[in-house]
What does this fold into?
Amino acid sequence: MIRPLKRIYARLWNSISFRLTFNYGLLAILTTLILLAFIYFQVMGALHTQRYQQITATAQRMAIVYEDQGREGLIKAINLIVSDRIDSERQAYLLVDAQYHKLAGNIDALPTSQPTYLGLFQGDIFRNGRRQPGHFIAYHLADGSILFVGQDLSEIDNVTTLILQGIAAAIVLAMVLVMLGAYIFRRELEYRVGTIRQITKKVSAGQLSQRIPISHAEDEFTLLNQDINTMLDRIEALMNGVRHVSDTIAHNLRTPLTRVTGRLRLALQPGTSPDEMRQAAAAAMEEIESLNVLFGKMLQLAEIEAGVRRQTFRSRRLDVIVEDVFEMYSAVAEEEGKTLELKPCAPIWVPGDADLLASACANLIENGLKHARTGVTIGVFVDNMGCARVAISDDGPGIPATEFDRVGTRFYRLDASVSGHGLGLASVRAIMALHQGWLEFSDARPGLRASMCLPAIGVSGNLTQGRSGNL
It folds into this structure.
């Protein structure tokens, strides 16, 4: 019997919803008890203070009667008050002489007393053969007699009983409300967490398209669900990318390997001349070198995405890096009969790796020269958002705006007839992501404008001289 109870207790206590509801419920009940206790003592203190003031005022009036009319006048006043039956059932009077013989009043005997607060005495009052608790005060008069004035506690006891009953009802009501609130809180928490668990189980089972419903309430769970959905979007995109990469690699490997195998088989056939064998071997070597270049680019891209090169980040002059790449590709543009122009730019500092930034810039310039009709223009500047931009524009055919988001994904090529593996712009995107920047495309009208956007450190107002010409 004890073990099942222990297991139930352990299961409940291991639940964060149970612990939260229990702790906050206990805190609410304790707060209610403290508040009710404060109210109780305040009310009881006010009642006792009022009782003391009433008893003291009555005793002072009796003392004034004694001073004006003597003992006989006081006896008459007490008998008059007792006989009118207005407050005689609640008030208590007793006048005794020095030998404690009763002279007047509605008390049968001296009250048994013990001191209490504010100078009052609390004890039992014997009246009409009954004993009643009460408060009273004693006045010693000049002739040796003693005047006892007091009130019984029946009224205060009734009020105390009502207050305690109200407190008990309030505690029960508070416990019911706390339990109801705890139940609602637990159900809501289990529902919100249960929804997340259901979606994560489906995602674990391979349903990567599942997402957590987003409520209209802008609470912590909504923000958490949005973050989880963003993470799931990223995971799904990565998985789709892996599938796409796997399919593309298989395709890119199968075609050249098939050509290599076919040529080598032809070379091994009887009657093949030595020249034909050398040609087949040379063609096979060319295909293998192309595959080696492909794997090299993929390894470089994986290294960039892994963030290995981030440890080499320093403050770099972006304009100097771009100018160096410009110098290198000027000869290429001249051979192709195209222009390559670098607009004047101010010194711009960015955090990063100089080799990677130069590689990204070279990829964009090479891509621009490949598609340009007459030339490529390079601009380096800081935009209104404080981002350093390297904008490379060509006057080629451009690409549709619907393809902007796909350009830069691995192995993506808008024109399959153009040579290449489709990894150049993918490496640029990876380099920008490593530098906490991004790559964006826009319509140059005519042509395409590719912009590298990077966080800038500082900008100087002095312009460097631009370079241009028919190279």
Confidence is low (pLDDT under 50) at residues 459-471.
